[in-house]
Write a structure and sequence with these properties.
Length: about 80
């Protein structure tokens, strides 16, 4: 298997981060994670926990239109704004 790569998106207190990758190191999808953990993970290499439970280090930022984990999106959409 190839290396695992991640990326980041944003909304209230969570942000999508990518995990699964393709052969060209582009994540297949992004996950929502706590926004305040993204920079720490990117700099220190610590792992973040996505809303769906996926655990990974942040290595890339998402681009507009990047695919988002369906489980994370469902959880995120069910949260009240600002929570």
């Amino acid at each position: 298997m190839g290396r695992v790569s991640t990326e980041t998106l944003t909304k209230p207190e969570t942000t999508p981060e990518g995990t699964d990758t393709t052969d060209d190191d582009t994540p297949k999808m992004f996950h929502y994670v706590k926004k305040n953990k993204i920079a720490e993970s990117a700099v220190m290499g610590t792992h973040v926990v996505a809303l769906c439970g996926e655990v990974f280090p942040v290595t890339k930022s998402p681009k507009p239109g990047s695919p988002v984990c369906p489980a994370c999106k469902e959880i995120y959409d069910s949260l009240r704004p600002g929570k």
